[in-house]
Write a structure and sequence with these properties.
By secondary structure, this protein is mainly α. 54% of the residues lie in helices and 0% in strands. It has seven helices and no strands. Helix 2 crosses helix 4 and helix 3 crosses helix 4. It has a domain of 88 residues: Orthogonal Bundle (Arc Repressor Mutant, subunit A).
């Protein structure tokens, strides 16, 4: 009999229909992620974990893609929650997006403005 393979070694988990998944981390340009890392005082690894959460990945999938154990991912998530004074994934998404929107970075990246920020004030109403 073959030894049992840990679930995080089996590869990333895909949801019921990948076409239904949101844009996730690709919603924000890489420059914005770098700026968010600095403004939220996250390490590079913590930022990678946050991006995995934005992609709606489970801890096992994040662990597999980063080559670390799910326990390490859980530890990073708890550190992120403590740093940002939050307690859940939805709160993390809201905190990151509100930081992004308040930084003015979305106004510097018009190609994603409609997706992340909505319509510019005064535009389309002439």
């Amino acid at each position: 009999m073959f030894p049992r393979v840990p679930p995080y070694w089996r590869g990333p988990a895909t949801g019921p229909d990948p076409a239904c998944r949101t844009a996730g981390a690709s919603l924000l340009p890489s420059a914005a992620w770098s700026q968010l890392r600095d403004s939220l005082k996250l390490s590079d690894r913590e930022l990678q974990i946050v991006q995995g959460i934005f992609e709606d990945q489970k801890q096992e999938s994040i662990a597999f893609s980063l080559g670390i154990s799910p326990h390490s991912v859980n530890t990073y998530i708890q550190r992120i929650y403590n740093k940002l004074r939050i307690s859940s994934r939805p709160q993390l998404i809201v905190r990151v997006m509100s930081e992004y929107l308040s930084s003015g970075a979305c106004r510097k990246a018009p190609e994603i403005f409609e997706v992340a920020c909505g319509e510019l004030p005064g535009e389309g109403t002439e």
